[in-house]
Design goal:
Beta-Lactamase; disordered N terminus; five-stranded antiparallel beta sheet; 15 helices; alpha+beta
Length: 537
Amino acid sequence: MSEDLKPSYEELEAELAQAKERLRHAGLHARSAQGTSEARADRLEERLQQAYRRNAEQRSDQLAEMSEVHRSAADLAQSEALRRAILDSSTEYAIISLDRDGMVTSWNEGAVQTMGWTEKEMLGRPAHVFFTPEQIDAGIPEQEMREAIETGRGEDERYHLHKDGSRFWANGLMMPLEADGVHIGFVKILRDRSVQHRAQQELKKVAAELAFDRATLRAVFENAPVGLSLAAAPTGESILINEQMRRLAGRDFSAGGMDRYLGAGAIHEDGSPYALDDYPQVQAIRHGIETHAAPFLIERPDGTRLKTEVSSVPLRDESGRMTGAVSVVVDVHEREQAIEHQTLLTGELAHRMKNTMAMVQAIVHQSLRSAATLDEARESVTERFEALARAQDLLTASNWQASNLGGVVQAALASVNDGERIAINGEPVEVGARAALSFTLVLHELATNAVKYGALSVPDGQVTVRWRRQECAGAERLVFTWEEQGGPRVAAPTRKGFGTRLIDSMGRSFGGRSELRYPPEGVCWLVEADPARLLIA
């Protein structure tokens, strides 16, 4: 523009000089006229000078305006360069500008380093490029732009894509861009927080595991079959105490400081209460003394006493400073009862073994005395042992407690009873182990004799077994009978064998009498016994 103005000023100056020269040399008029011409020339020169000055001022204003424009352009270029330098120096942040349609219009160095695409690769491309496919399907990019317009900013924490397709976790911020109050686009700022996100996720995982472990330990603590308590040092205040500890003590002594142990109810064998320093828990907290499985007798509020054992261990931190103590109280009352019960069972077993061995010895001895040959003795012993074994099985099934007499009879005669030739009838009666064994062996002897010589040795023979309770001489008695019919004629034996001796002893053994008779129509056995004596194991 200054070049266009410069020729006009030079032409104006040249025209003015020429005018002056013509006026000085002109001789066209007289002196008076000459004076008038000079006056006119002076006025012309003045007008020309005014025009020159006006043009000069305009030129100066235009030159100043031009200088200001050049300075503004230079400042703008410098400002843009500075802005770009600032943006590119923020390499931790991806700063991206978008037009109103979400197309990239700028892409700083932080975006290059964060996501991998260069600015040249991204200019004019949609922001969808660095969103995940599932986010695109869900319309997340459009949602962010809507939130930015509606609220002024849209914040997010989500995964985005690298150029190579891998994912990274980022904190994001979307804001609208405006110029002179007109919305012209958006600015998106991202910061890669993958490391922090992984650390947070790991921390959450560890926290969840710790919470689970804590809950598990708490559940174990609360439901442990032993009393557990955790106390702080040096105050002795309760940190944790489980329900079993309260149950064992019969009270809750968790409130208060060290003196609360005086309410735990511990006493010495002579019944005197524990002094505070007698408590192993207090010794652990105050003096660091460990106690293991020490006898600990507790007297409950209802006056009952419970034998327990206590263990207390002091707790220390890494510097060795006392921080508290943990105590375990175990109920040994049940254990001692179990030991007593075991001792009783052992004695009972020994007693039964002695009785069984005595019976075995008697069976062998009497069988050998009665047998004519060794084979006969072997057969008798074997059969009697089998009968004894069946009785043992029956008693074992009832845990050597009282057995039903009907079951004993059925088991004793099972090997010879076909369900047709032996009739069994009787009311429910309970008998102890000793009586069950005796009835089993006697019935075995009677059945064996019946099969060999009596009613069961012929097809038409019958045996009737019955029992009942009845009054005899003012006392209740159990009357048990064995009767044979339809067999060969019977004659009394000339000598007594094992079976006869066993039958004779039945009455004496159970507070009554036993009678074995031999009428011609069949053998009969009757025994009267005291029902109470029959129940004795």
